[in-house]
Structure formats: C-alpha cells, structure tokens
C-alpha cells in the first residue's frame, strides 16, 4: 500500500480526520434537528439544551461556523418565546459574530431590542437588514414604526434630564433664597446662542 505524505501527515490520517469531522458535524446537525423538533412542539427549554449540545460538538470541529451561527440564532428564538429578551440579544450577537450577514439573527435581535425599548439599537439592526437586503419590507415597516418611538423616548429622556438639572440647581440656589425660576434663558434666533437674565 502506498502512503502519500503531505506536511508530515499521511493521506490515511488526513482522510480519517476528515471522516471524524464529518461524523462530528453530522452529530451536531442531529442535535440541531432534535432541537428544531422540540421547538416546534413548544418545548423551548428542551430545545435550548439540544442546541447547546450541537454547539458543544461543533466547537470541536473546524469550519463549523454555519451550524454554530444557526444554533445561536435558534437559541435566540427560544429565549424570545420565553420572554428572555436580554438572552435573545446575546445569542443573536454570537450568531452575528460568526456570520455578520445573517438576516434572521439581525431581525430577531432588533425585535428583542424593541421589546426592551432599546429603539436606537433596533433601528441600527433594521438599517443593517436593509443594507444587506434592500427589498426587505419587514425591516422598512419596522423602521417606520421605530423611528417615532425612538424620537419620543429621546424627548422624554431630555425632559427627565432637564428636571434633574433644575432640581440640582434649586438645591444649590435655595441656600441663597433663589431658584432656577429666577433665571430666564433666551435663545438668539440669529446665532443660536443663549443669554441668561436674572429676574426677581
């Protein structure tokens, strides 16, 4: 029998390594398929366990990014169904680290961000979806819904910040018998700068 040497490894060993890799990938795919069945049956915790087994097997195999990213995205949808949106975001992020153009992971992460009222992050994910797939109507409709929500949240945060600043200003000025209401800020329409005047 002739054995061909390549980089110090025999052809037989390389073939055996390839066969072992295929076997491991098949086992990972089987665990993923079992997870899919459990997911369809509404057994999300059991599905999570199967996807985790698939990930552990795949982590031992080179070039297993595709199955790993799918398992992370599948774990994300399980967490979403369980209402664990922080976990959904983490799993989608792991899937996207392995496959940056994975549309399902982007969409799922955006939906989880929206549930947690992280509107800016949801918008960023939806814009990435449109960048990758300009004809994606779901992303376009989501952007139309999310942008006003994000603007409303920014305005609310601005009002809360102003209220806190006034409260802090009043605590300091109160020592001198004054309040922030004694000061009036007037914006110059030409320059955009403000002038502050004191009133009794």
Automatic annotation (TrEMBL):
<dbReference type="InterPro" id="IPR019734">
    <property type="entry name" value="TPR_rpt"/>
</dbReference>
<dbReference type="Pfam" id="PF07719">
    <property type="entry name" value="TPR_2"/>
</dbReference>
<feature type="repeat" description="TPR">
    <location>
        <begin position="69"/>
        <end position="102"/>
    </location>
</feature>
<dbReference type="InterPro" id="IPR052769">
    <property type="entry name" value="TPR_domain_protein"/>
</dbReference>
<dbReference type="InterPro" id="IPR013105">
    <property type="entry name" value="TPR_2"/>
</dbReference>
<keyword id="KW-0802">TPR repeat</keyword>
<dbReference type="Pfam" id="PF00515">
    <property type="entry name" value="TPR_1"/>
</dbReference>
<protein>
    <submittedName>
        <fullName>Tetratricopeptide repeat protein 1</fullName>
    </submittedName>
</protein>
<keyword id="KW-0677">Repeat</keyword>
<feature type="repeat" description="TPR">
    <location>
        <begin position="103"/>
        <end position="136"/>
    </location>
</feature>
<dbReference type="InterPro" id="IPR011990">
    <property type="entry name" value="TPR-like_helical_dom_sf"/>
</dbReference>
């Amino acid at each position: 029998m002739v054995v061909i040497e390549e980089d110090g490894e025999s052809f037989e060993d390389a073939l055996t390594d390839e066969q072992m890799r295929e076997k491991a990938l098949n086992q990972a795919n089987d665990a993923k398929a079992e997870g899919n069945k459990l997911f369809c049956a509404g057994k999300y915790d059991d599905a999570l366990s199967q996807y985790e087994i698939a990930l552990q097997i795949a982590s031992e195999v080179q070039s297993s990014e595709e199955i790993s990213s799918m398992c992370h995205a599948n774990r994300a949808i399980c967490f979403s169904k369980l209402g664990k949106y922080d976990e959904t975001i983490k799993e989608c992020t792991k899937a996207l680290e392995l496959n940056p153009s994975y549309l399902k992971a982007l969409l799922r992460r955006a939906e989880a961000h929206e549930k947690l009222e992280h509107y800016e992050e949801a918008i960023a994910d939806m814009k990435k979806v449109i960048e990758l797939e300009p004809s994606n109507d779901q992303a376009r409709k989501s952007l139309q819904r999310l942008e006003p929500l994000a603007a409303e949240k920014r305005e609310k945060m601005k009002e809360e910040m102003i209220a806190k600043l006034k409260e802090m200003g009043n605590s300091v000025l109160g020592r001198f018998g004054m309040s922030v209401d004694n000061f009036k800020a007037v914006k110059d329409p030409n320059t955009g700068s403000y002038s502050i005047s004191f009133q009794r």
